[in-house]
Design goal:
2 copies of one chain form a homodimer.
Chain A (H helix, E strand, L loop, with lengths): L1 E2 L5 H5 L2 H4 L3 H10 L1 E5 L4 E3 L8 E6 L1 E7 L5 E8 L19 E4 L3 E6 L1 H10 L1 H26 L3 H15 L5 E3 L4 H7 L4 H13 L3 E4 L2 E4 L2 H8 L7
Antiparallel strand pairs in A: 1-2, 2-8, 3-7, 4-8, 5-6, 5-7, 9-11, 10-11
Helix pairs in contact in A: 4-5, 6-9, 7-8
The first copy, chain A, binds a DNA duplex (30 and 30 nucleotides) through helix 8.
DNA sequence: CGACCTCTTGAACGCTTTCAATTTTCGTGG
DNA sequence: CCACGAAAATTGAAAGCGTTCAAGAGGTCG
């Protein structure tokens, strides 16, 4: 279950929090950290469980979600290789995981004792600035997410999402979705059927089209107009 | 505009981040901080402005919100006396305010240089633990908020909100809303009419009733069943 | 190549929004 | 202290839109 192989230094330093740490601290991490391998659908942690480990995604993909009263999943984040699970940080003991986490595909997670993260924070001013910065960014992300969900028109949500992904991919006309449409729909708190109909509508209006996970943005300006409410074609 | 009167020590120590600080640091704060007085509807800061000051509410009430494409407000937080505006923290320079902030009523805000907050963080392990804890709690709040908005049934959202307030007030049958129903509706991303109809429905079913801002919870268990999806009377 | 899951499409229903009008509440000034 | 006016809250009716249910097409992985 717990593989005790030493984690390569580059693997550790890829995460901002650890990037500028001295060799001594990195050695300490390598001695106390381990890699947690996950099969698809394997649970990493459960919502409301006490935070025992802090995780960083080395490979694969995991989903962070809550369960609805109907038993379905509401996706909050899809984390891939290189992403820190900021929701698994706890400096003071006692925090509970705010979300469930399960592997989507075979994955490897860097697993660190939260107390060790706290220790690093106390030893390195740079690490503590990075940590606080990461938390602030997470707050900004969640505010954006809540704003997205506060709009009742499905077309607006989808347009916002596509525009975001478009920009995140360097304004490339073509890009791939980070996950299946099912998960995208859940992230947007829409039914898969509704997402499908929105994409069809965008295709019919020459705004954007999709083939499987590949998205083509044909008219970014129109997309922006929809998001800003200028264009009613939502 | 900027009143340079010295801030009383108790006023500063009421906030967790400053509570266990040494007298020396508190003196430093008193010399560099000031009180910003706001009239009703006066703007404290705007979304996407660079973070220049970090604020703590000493008296009155402010709203943190975004504007929709329709020009209306989406409320994220109502902050009252004793609340820290955690969205105005910035350790590294360069963060932008994620939300607009405007006074609802005449208010006084403790105004501190964000660099000074950073300085405190580096000097006091306790303060830095409190700060990170505050940010983690803000993340948990926002996850809860996003979950609330992901439910499409208005009755569920209102029931969740009432149950939350009920518990926050120590399970007292009767309590007052922290703000007007207009703002509560906006927080729930519902139209005021929809909130009104939900409350009427709850009154007619003996679950809860409201007179102005005063709420009476008649059947907390029923409320919980609605939130958990057992009871369909939403 | 087949089983399973994802995605798509159609149609009907239910619920929130929207628009409009009335009542109530609350703050300000007389 | 009461009166007035503006904003908030409530109620009704109609319309728009996402959900739900059902079925079929397409893709993926063993």
């Amino acid at each position: 279950m717990l593989e005790r192989k030493m984690v390569p230094v580059e693997q550790i330093r890829q995460f901002r929090i650890f990037r500028n740490l001295g060799d001594e601290i990195v050695s300490d991490i390598r001695r106390s950290a381990w890699i947690k391998s996950l099969a698809a659908d394997e649970v990493l942690f459960r919502q409301n469980d006490p935070v025992r480990r802090t995780y960083f995604c080395l490979s694969g993909q995991v989903k962070l979600f809550r369960l609805t009263r109907a038993g379905s999943e509401k996706i909050f984040t899809i984390a891939s290789s290189g992403d820190s699970l900021r929701d698994s940080i706890s400096l003071k003991p006692g925090r509970l995981y705010p979300l469930h986490c399960t592997a989507i595909s075979t994955s490897e997670m860097l697993s660190i004792d939260p107390e060790f993260i706290a220790d690093i924070c106390h030893r390195s001013p740079d690490a503590r600035a990075s940590l606080i910065d990461a938390l602030e960014q997470r707050i900004d992300e969640l505010v954006d997410h809540a704003e997205l969900l506060s709009v009742d028109k499905a077309g607006f949500r989808v347009a916002s999402y596509l525009l975001n992904e478009y920009r995140r991919n360097g304004n490339e006309q073509s890009f791939r979705l980070g996950s299946s449409k099912k998960y995208v729909a859940s992230y947007l708190s829409l039914q898969p059927e509704t997402l499908s109909r929105c994409l069809r509508h965008f295709r019919q209006n020459g705004i954007a089209s999709s083939v499987n996970r590949r998205i083509e943005i044909h008219d970014p300006e129109r997309l922006e107009q929809i998001v800003n409410g200028v264009d009613a074609a939502a």
